[in-house]
Design the sequence.
């Protein structure tokens, strides 16, 4: 009885103190930048909505761990796939010769797909207009299925 009650009260006090300390630490951290793209694993799919699990990467960030991504007729759907190695090497060589300050070529290329090609378990990146860092529901402008570890570049 009494001993349990005292232990529970001490535990609750310790938790409150810890939460207070975390809030103090947050004051000294730089403001987090806007987020326009979120990566997660597809958990559920309905007619035009994808529910994705987005585990928190930073314990000090208070962001949703589950997101509802709504799609419209304007949403683009792509699958990221490794480019053929010869194509990538050719693009990379051209980039090196140009001595450009532009972004170097990507080893991945986008293949247009449809909403129906997305399946539960896929890892996707959902992009939106505006800051979606704290939003648990948003409308995607583009959804990219990320390559799996089984993907490999062809010779």
Sequence:
């Amino acid at each position: 009885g009494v001993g349990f009650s005292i232990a529970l009260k001490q535990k609750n006090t310790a938790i409150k103190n810890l939460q207070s300390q975390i809030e103090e630490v947050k004051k000294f951290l730089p403001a987090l930048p806007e987020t326009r793209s979120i990566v997660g694993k597809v958990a559920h799919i309905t007619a035009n909505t994808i529910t994705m699990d987005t585990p928190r990467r930073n314990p000090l960030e208070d962001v949703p761990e589950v997101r509802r991504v709504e799609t419209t007729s304007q949403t683009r759907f792509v699958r990221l796939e490794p480019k053929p190695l010869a194509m990538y090497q050719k693009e990379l060589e051209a980039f090196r010769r140009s001595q450009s300050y532009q972004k170097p070529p990507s080893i991945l290329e986008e293949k247009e797909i449809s909403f129906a090609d997305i399946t539960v378990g896929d890892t996707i990146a959902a992009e939106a207009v505006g800051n979606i860092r704290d939003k648990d529901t948003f409308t995607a402008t583009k959804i990219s299925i990320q390559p799996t570890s089984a993907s490999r570049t062809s010779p």
Summary: The first strand starts at residue 37 and ends at 45. Strands lie at 37-45, 49-53, 66-70, 76-82, 108-112, 123-127, 137-139, 142-145. The radius of gyration is 22 Å. Helices lie at 2-28, 85-98.
